[in-house]
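Write out the 3D structure for:
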Amino acid sequence: MKTFQLANESSSLLSLSPKFILPEDERPQLSEVTSLDSIPIIDLSDHSYDGNNHSSSLVVQKISQACEEYGFFQIVNHGIPEQVCNKMMTAITDLFNLPPEQTGQLYTTDHTKNTKLYNYYLNVEGGEKVKMWSECFSHYWYPIEDIIHLLPQEIGTQYGEAFSEYAREIGSLVRRLLGLLSIGLGIEEDFLLKIFGDQPRLRAQANFYPPCPDPELTLGLPVHTDFNALTIVLQSQVSGLQVIKDGKWIAVPVIPNAFVINLGDQIQVPLMCFSRSFSPFSIKLMHPEINLFQIYTMRKYKLVYLTILILLEKRLDAHKFNVQTQNFCA
């Protein structure tokens, strides 16, 4: 197994030290994970409509059902060129592969910093913290110049060019998805986009999960839900992402040039009065993996505004978007 050294570790990760080992009741049960079922896969190229009735679109119907039953779905034929995704994945992989003395310059425990490399922890009984088997790099989308000058010289230009192109494509995809979600709610297509306004919070996060010597004892990320509105996930060639469906963990397979879409709490919370199911998720470790998250978040006062408008919208069908949220550690 290839060894890997985290930015804030003094030696390579050859074995699990106690700080990574979860209590028995928190450990992943990998033998119980099923791959027989998974989240829906939706082809965005299907634009069949019934006359002028956009709500009859097969895409809208599938997205509505996926949000109702899972809160997650994968999309294919989304219009983002594969080379753009590959270029972005190569850039972030090259960053994580830099020597720890270089990536260590980005490491911080100060989460108020806009650009940072950090670790997740899980609070366990007794007040102790267990370190997750992962390393996370996060920054705001713009301005890209503020990010580049903080990166090691070897990666700055490559990363800046790749991310600028990738962010433009993802921004267009997010606007399209918000339109489809609005139609699925039975309201105007630009409803959610107007609520988010011109200044949503846009954050990129890349998580690296090194080769794990004993994946039965630890997690890459704790079980959690996303507080934000929408998360767009690009997986590497190895799958470790899992979601809960009907009390059982199911694996999310890697599909070439596909994105995993997670409907976050900010959209789900206003719809709780129509709720039925929701899927928290986690990262289970079998092989080295990188996931790239593009996170779309509305400002706090917008959440209150959205809640009021949703509840007042007379056309909202109580049978649509039956999702609910519950509190998991993040």
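The chain has one domain: 18-312.
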